[in-house]
Amino acid sequence: MYFRQPDGNFNLANLFRAELYSAMATLKLGMDILFEKEQVSADKFTGHGGLFKIEGVAQQFLADGLKTPVSVMKTAGEGGAWGMAVLAAYMLWNNAETLPAYLEDKVFGAMESKTLEPIADGSEGFDAFVNNYKAGVAAEYVLIQ
After folding, report:
1. CB 58 within 8 A of CB 51
2. Model pLDDT for residues 79-127, shown as the tens digit of each residue
3. Which pLDDT score, from 0 to 100, does residue 16 have?
4. Could you say which DSSP state residue 76 is in?
5. Contacts of 78 (CB under 8 A, 6+ apart)
6. pTM: predicted TM-score of the whole model, two decimal places
7. Could you tell me if residue 39 is left (phi over 0), alpha (psi between -120 and 50 degrees) or otherwise beta?
8. What's residue 79's pLDDT?
9. Which member of 7, 27, 74, 115 has the lowest number of beta carbons within 10 Å of its beta carbon?
10. From CA 15, how far away is CA 123, in angstroms rounded?
């Protein structure tokens, strides 16, 4: 379901932006709870999976939405199956290192990556989208009743 403001500019670019923002909106809502209510902080996030195969687009949107730098590694498109294999290898052959140390030392340490910083205008736009997104949830709820 799509909503737009009467004065909204409905074009292909904004439609695609809404699709990507929607994919990240629930993550942002959950992270806002952790950041604001639980006082959790993050120095950086790492994006992975098919959403990050096109360099920079989803990565910048996520950095803007979370107001936190986001890194994407060269292998970002490998996604879940590869990640499960990495975790299985850790469980089977590691008996001394913590998971973060194992990932840094054995898996990702030498991996080529690129980090993007949040941009103020992008963060403001993402926040406006999420405010409208939250308002639209009530309308979706009515439709499924």
Report:
1. yes
2. 677 788 888 999 998 778 898 889 888 888 888 899 999 999 999 999 9
3. 93
4. G
5. 48
6. 0.81
7. left
8. 67
9. 7
10. 18
CA 24 – CA 28 distance, rounded (Å): 6
Q: What is the mean pLDDT of residues 38-48?
A: 92
Tell me the average pLDDT across 18-44: 94
pLDDT, residue 81, reads: 79
Which residues sit opposite 113 in a β-bridge?
73
Q: Residue 140 corresponds to which amino acid?
A: E
- Answer whether 86's CB lies under 8 Å from 107's CB: yes
Residue 93 one-letter amino acid: W
Side chain identity at residue 122, one-letter code: G
In terms of Cα–Cα distance, which of 68, 66, 64, 81 is closest to 121? 64
Measure the CA–CA gap between 116 and 81, rounded to whole angstroms.
Answer: 25
Token pair, residue 19, equals: 């699709």
CA distance readout (Å), 16 to 23, 58, 100? 11, 11, 35
Whole-Å CA distances, 14 to 18, 119, 129:
6, 18, 11
Cβ-contact 99, 90 below 8 angstroms: yes
